[in-house]
Design goal:
Helix content: under 10%
Family: Belongs to the Nogo receptor family.
Protein name: Reticulon 4 receptor like 2
Number of helices: 5
Subcellular location: Cell membrane; Cell projection; Membrane raft; Membrane
Strand content: 15-25%
Membrane topology: Lipid-anchor
Distance between the termini: 97 Å
Keywords: Cell membrane, Cell projection, Glycoprotein, Leucine-rich repeat, Lipoprotein, Membrane, Receptor, Repeat, Signal
Largest sheet: 12 strands, mixed
Radius of gyration: 31 Å
Number of strands: 26
Bound molecules: 2-acetamido-2-deoxy-beta-D-glucopyranose
């Protein structure tokens, strides 16, 4: 007897045995593998162009990912389904009612179906036990207002890498148990006042790699448990009205890769950083252009902790110029005031003013402050003064290819220098 024949007979015996065991799994669809406990049907990566007919009605887990399924129809899935993986298919339409009678469904993965593009408002209605919904990489441009209605058990919602252009108020209003909301890699331009309303359990909110230019001052209100917020790689120049102040539990914040303006609009953010202990990526200034565009003479060489607003040219690596001897103003305090712009009351963050030249002042913590002025070109007309704690201060002035200045540092350490072109 050949080996193959033997195996076949064995398989036949096994099938017969299964068929006779009361409650055992019924026939498994072609190209699928079925498991008894927990009842599972696995048809992944089989080039299926449709959901196979005759899925065992008692199946709790259905793995149909990595096929070319084009449409989902009502009645395809049985009421016992708990886990349904349909990611990386070619689904472009979902018939109304497809998920209507799946009261046990806890996880639905529809991600990476780039032809999906639009969803009917009631697609997920009735999924009272749904905990995780994956809709990443589906080229969705918008979401119907009612799409997440009634999903009270939802904890994980993945909407990243779509083409979402906006998020309307109250879109997530029923999701009181949601802890993860991933919205990165979309094209959202603004966050309105009510967009995150209802998300009382939200722990992490990822909004990076969008086109955010405006965040309503109350957009984050009610996110009392949020610990992680990513806003990097957007188009934010400022956060007017201090929206971050509404986040008492925040621990990790990323704001980098935005065109932050380091003029007076930066004050609330600056003040917020000073009174919180949030861990943040460095925040670089993109404007005014004189500061961002490589001029390094006029930038106050103060080492700031991550989280503070840092002029970009300072960060671009001229070493820690703050460790140089801290010079002393040659002309007394009057010299220090020369660059002070109007409209910038002392003791308040930083202010910039710019035209053909730029000037400004900053203040950070007790005793650390300064002003600078930068001429329209290289050479004369640029100067800076700063103070760093009691007795530590300096002024610099730049000439044609040279600089001179004075410093004072604690008790008895002081001096002046002049550097001429060689
Ligand atoms: C997948 O199925 C299509 C027809 O539905 C067929 O043309 C194609 O060759 C199949 N691909 C593979 C890799 O089996
Ligand atoms: C996927 O669906 C689109 C239209 O929805 C169709 O043009 C394309 O040929 C499909 N791709 C495959 C591999 O079936
Ligand atoms: C969802 O949240 C509500 C209120 O916060 C709570 O009563 C309910 O038990 C939660 N449901 C689940 C499934 O976590
Ligand atoms: C920023 O986001 C865009 C999409 O908005 C993306 O293409 C780009 O790779 C991202 N850049 C970085 C540095 O993450």
């Amino acid at each position: 007897m050949s080996r193959r024949c033997c195996c076949r007979r064995l398989a036949a015996l096994l099938l017969a045995a299964l068929a006779w065991v009361p409650g055992a799994a019924p026939a498994c669809p072609a190209l699928c593998t079925c498991y008894v406990s927990p009842p599972t049907v696995s048809c992944q990566a089989s080039n299926l162009s449709a959901v196979p007919a005759g899925l065992p009605p008692g199946a709790r887990r259905l793995f149909l990912q990595n096929n070319v399924i084009a449409a989902l129809r009502a009645g395809a899935f049985g009421p016992s389904t708990v886990t349904l993986w349909l990611y990386s298919n070619n689904i472009s339409s979902i018939q109304p009612g497809t998920f209507r009678h799946l009261p046990a469904l806890e996880e639905l993965d529809l991600g990476d179906n780039p032809h999906l593009r639009a969803l009917a408002p009631d697609t997920f209605h009735g999924l009272r036990r749904l905990q995780a919904l994956h809709l990443y990489r589906c080229r969705l441009a918008s979401l119907p207002s009612a799409i997440f209605r009634g999903l009270h058990s939802l904890q994980y919602l993945y909407l990243q890498e779509n083409g979402l252009l906006y998020l309307q108020d109250d879109l997530f209003a029923d999701l009181a148990n949601l802890s993860h909301l991933f919205l990165h890699g979309n094209r959202v331009r603004a966050l309105s006042e009510g967009v995150f309303r209802g998300l009382a359990s939200l722990d992490r909110l990822l909004l990076h790699a969008n086109r955010l230019a405006a965040v309503h001052r109350r957009a984050f209100r009610g996110l009392a448990r949020l610990t992680i917020l990513y806003l990097f790689n957007n188009s934010l120049a400022a956060l007017p009205g201090d929206p971050l102040a509404a986040l008492p539990a925040l621990q990790f914040l990323r704001l980098n890769a935005n065109p932050w303006a380091c003029d007076c609009r930066a004050r609330p953010l600056w003040a917020w950083f000073r009174r919180t202990r949030v861990s943040s990526s460095p925040v670089l200034c993109a404007s005014p252009p004189q500061l961002g565009a490589g001029g390094h003479g006029a930038v106050p060489p103060v080492t700031r902790p991550a989280g503070a607003l840092v002029p970009q040219s300072h960060h671009r690596g001229h070493g820690d110029r703050g460790s140089r001897p801290a010079p002393r103003p040659p002309h007394g305090p009057g010299g220090r005031r020369r660059g002070a712009p109007h409209g910038c009351p002392p003791g308040r963050g930083a202010c910039w003013e710019r035209g053909r030249s730029s000037k400004g002042c900053w203040e950070r913590g007790p005793g650390s402050k300064g002003c600078w002025e930068r001429g329209p070109g290289p050479g004369p007309g640029s100067r800076a003064c700063w103070e760093r704690g009691p007795g530590s201060r300096a002024c610099w002035e730049w000439w044609h290819q040279g600089s001179k200045g004075c410093w004072e540092r604690g008790l008895g350490s002081r001096g002046c220098w002049e550097q001429r072109p060689s």
